[in-house]
Write a structure and sequence with these properties.
Aspartate Aminotransferase, domain 2; seven-stranded mixed sheet; four-stranded antiparallel sheet; binds pyridoxal-5'-phosphate
Length: about 450
């Protein structure tokens, strides 16, 4: 059977699916996705926490169309483009990295692959054979074979163990489940790195706050400054994976700004293009880029890296973020969402923690609040809440491993920053209703 965009997918699909019985989306506008059978779904998850400026922006479509008829594509080893040069110049003003350089790719996993290889190449260029990558427990850095090793989610790693296992695992920073101070966590991190030989450590990669695995888990306030000091003192490249948090999601251009951090590399994706183009970004310091020597010495790149259409789309998204002050809005809206979640769920016996920053908000569920005991995964608490929310007209993002990378239940809200107050209130109310109906 063939399908067209305005028909429901009823069977016979030739797509390798990522879900069962998926409804067909036929239009998307603002914070709402409409399905072929006429349902209007509020995009509380922003897809995979990726939508910043909202669906259906004519100006982004126009920018992509204009770029397609001027220079659609050229290969980055043969040409640069005005679209990319202009975007990079506009972007670096917001990046908390000294003399930042932009390496655009096609997604977050590719951005992290690029960052890890760049860190290794940087050390080699300086005559240091550093190769160890340190990443945290419960990290998520992507799903391609290289960064899967840095990611620490059991269900994604299962079966691929023979290919992975080189990453050195250091503690996560999760105020809800670990009461150590940031200084203590950094000291434990240092102890582990000393054990493997800290002079061999090329890079420390981490999400500023928990993302897809640890569901918005927040570090103690003194954690990041202590980690920055540790990396600086030992010549370790600090890579902040801001694929989920970057471009305003947490109410700052980058989550690094909450702690005044100056990492060596930031990776980004998701909100940078808001989904209008599959874009990832590896943003490195000028020191690293200059040491590597630019073209030729970094044997890395893809057919679609440095794509002018991606730059045109992302530049328009950047202009919208600036023009409509959407990052300030994400901070204000996030506070309102947090207050409403707290008011509705604070006393719920199965709600262990409500957390997050800006418009990255999460609710963690526990079988017992006092002991913070997770539910048995066989109960599929997260999946049932996600389904109940969807039935009520809301997408939320699941986390089924927020305790330690293998167990735990949480859902995340990560709606477009442009969502109206009314839409955000409706999202929170639907989520509370879905939780109450699932966990009576
Ligand atoms: C923090 C983080 N890093 C990397 C990735 C991987 O990005 P992508 O799915 O675009 O490859 C994700 C995706 O969820 C992410 O949240």
């Amino acid at each position: 059977m063939s399908t067209t965009s305005d028909q429901p997918v009823t069977g016979g699909t030739h797509v390798f699916p990522r879900g069962l019985q998926l409804p067909a989306a036929v239009s998307a506008n603002g914070a709402t996705v409409t399905t072929a059978d006429g349902r209007r779904i509020l995009n509380g998850s922003g897809g995979a926490i990726a939508n910043s400026v909202g669906h259906g922006r004519r100006e982004v479509a126009d920018a992509i169309a204009a770029q397609a008829v001027s220079v659609d594509y050229v290969h980055a080893t043969q040409f640069t483009t005005t679209a990319l040069e202009d975007y990079a110049s506009a972007l670096v003003a917001h990046v908390p990295i000294d003399d930042a350089r932009v390496f655009p790719v096609s997604g977050g996993s590719e951005a992290n692959e690029t960052a890890l290889k760049l860190a290794r190449t940087y050390h080699l260029a300086r005559g240091e054979d550093r190769h160890v990558i340190a990443a945290r427990a419960g990290a998520y850095h992507g799903n391609t074979r290289g960064v899967l090793d840095a990611s620490d989610r059991a269900q994604l790693r299962a079966g691929y163990e023979p290919w992975i296992g080189h990453t050195v695992r250091v503690p996560s920073a999760n105020r809800y489940r670990d009461h150590r101070s940031g200084v203590e966590l950094a000291a434990e991190t240092e102890r582990i790195l000393q054990e493997v030989g800290i002079h061999k450590v090329a890079a420390f990669i981490a999400e500023p706050i928990g993302g897809a695995t640890l569901a918005g888990a927040q570090p103690p306030d003194d954690y990041w400054p202590a980690i920055q000091r540790l990396c600086n003192a030992n010549g370790i490249v600090l890579i902040l994976d801001e694929v989920m948090t970057g471009f305003g999601r947490t109410g700052r251009w980058f989550a690094a700004d909450h702690w005044g951090l100056r990492p060596d590399i930031i990776t980004a994706g998701k909100s940078a293009s808001s989904g209008y183009w599959p874009l990832g970004l590896c943003l490195s310091s000028g020191v690293i880029a200059d040491a590597v020597g630019g073209a030729g010495n970094f044997a890395h790149g893809f057919t679609w890296s440095h794509h002018p259409m991606g730059a045109a789309a992302a530049h328009e998204v950047l202009r919208i973020l600036e023009r409509e002050s959407l990052i300030e809005r994400a901070e204000r809206s996030g506070a309102r969402v947090a207050a409403r979640l707290n008011a509705g769920l604070d006393q719920h016996p199965a709600v262990g923690d409500i957390r997050g920053l800006g418009l990255l908000r999460a609710v963690e569920f526990v079988a017992d609040r006092t002991g913070r005991t997770p539910f048995d995964r066989a109960e599929r608490v997260t999946e049932r809440i996600v389904e109940a929310a969807f039935e009520r007209g809301l997408t939320v993002y699941p986390s089924t491993s927020c305790v330690d990378g293998s167990v735990g239940d949480a859902v995340l809200l990560g709606p477009p920053f442009s969502s109206t107050d009314g839409e955000l209130e409706a999202m929170v109310d639907i989520l509370i209703d879905a939780i109450s109906a699932t966990l009576r």
